[in-house]
Amino acid sequence: MTKKLRWGIMGCAGIAKRAVIPGIQQSAYNEVAAIASRDESNAKQTAEALDIPDAYGSYEALLADSSIDAVYIPLPNHLHKEWTIKAAEAGKHILCEKPLALTAQEAAEMANAAEQAGVLLAEAFMYRYHPRYSVIQDLIASGAIGEVRGIRSAFTFNNAADSANVRYRKDWGGGSIYDVGCYPINAARLLLGREPEAVTVNAMFSPTHDDVDMMASGLIEFGDSVALTFDCGMWAAFRNPLEVLGSEGIIEVPSAFITPTAESGSIFVTAAGERREIEVPFVNAYSEQADHMARAIIEGTPLAFPAADAIANMKVIDACLQSARNRTRVSLSQ
């Protein structure tokens, strides 16, 4: 594939500058052609710092650029729906930060807009493009750990002192379930290959953080007596492990959702009384994500994770938030 996908970045968020833009720039089939911000000086400074050719002082101007093939949207959660729909109407393919929307209904509306416009829409869960997740899926399928009995995962960090952070705006889609709880939920759905039946979540809502969930722990029931137990938080020590428990063994991923560039992101498998390490060479998952989308757009190959997957994930998040607020078990069939 000789053609490169030309990307426009809608916003100068930290995740865009720190990880996604460099990942796109280091990929094989993509280039970052432009960036936009409501503050034109911010867009120009970011463009200069990251060697991006064009900068715009509005998102509308970026969408009007006919040379842009696709846009990446790292805006606050409550803006995802508005700008995804506008991008679709402008004929741009869309990679939107997780969570895709504030509700499954919003996600469905976004997916419908993309379908009507004939563009692709994907949710930016970069971790799942790392090849180690294919290794984990193969280990499970091969019976290396016997029958899956459950999954345990967590994603926590402590940023509570930054009271002005967008994560602590309830009306902007703040809270730990939206921000990091979505990862264990998404990973369990990916590894088990099916949708959950019910959820029960307990959360700590903080009045000093606009009453968003600063911590949450939950049980996600997948049927056949298999469940995900997880916790997430923005007011606790950092960690992001994942463990798949089988009848005959265990798969451990110490850093499940963040793979540091200086480490391999190894997987550990315990079976028959022996613990072995499976080394996975470092791969930039952001680059893999961009290249996967480029192949889908340019060559017409199917997306591994189409918008329907994002809608399904949002249904679980909806149920988790409902359970946490009402302190009750929520069936996904409701």
TrEMBL record:
InterPro entries per UniProt: Gfo/Idh/MocA-like_OxRdtase_N, Gfo/Idh/MocA_domain, GFO_IDH_MocA-like_dom, NAD(P)-bd_dom_sf
Domain GFO/IDH/MocA-like oxidoreductase: 136-252
GO-annotated molecular function: nucleotide binding; oxidoreductase activity
Keyword Secreted assigned: no
Pfam families in the cross-refs: GFO_IDH_MocA (PF01408), GFO_IDH_MocA_C3 (PF22725)
Ranges for domain Gfo/Idh/MocA-like oxidoreductase N-terminal: 5-123
Keywords: Oxidoreductase
The keyword Oxidoreductase is annotated on this UniProt entry: yes
Family: Belongs to the Gfo/Idh/MocA family.
Name used for this protein in its record: Oxidoreductase domain protein
Annotated source species: Paenibacillus curdlanolyticus YK9
Upper classification of the organism: Bacteria, Bacillati, Bacillota, Bacilli, Bacillales
